[in-house]
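Quick one: structure for this chain?
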Amino acid sequence: MTPEEYTEAVLRLVEQIPPGRVMTYGAVADALADESGRNSARRVGTIMARHGGGVPWHRVVGAGGRLPPGHENEARRRLQAEGVTFRGAHVAATHIN
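Got it. Here's what it folds into:
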């Protein structure tokens, strides 16, 4: 899988995350690892930062439910509108795939 194909695969997967649910960067990487030969949460984060504006980017969070850096307020607003609950500054584990 080329880097461009991997980027498209990440974005397709993120588009499939249902409202009210989130996936971690690592879970996205794990879900594509067999198909892509890659498994890097950091790479998924870079893809989301550069290309994620057209997909529900707010549904991809860091380990433990941390909101996307620099976009915490907007992500929290969007996720709360979808019924996601929080434990302090983090998404409650019951919403993480």
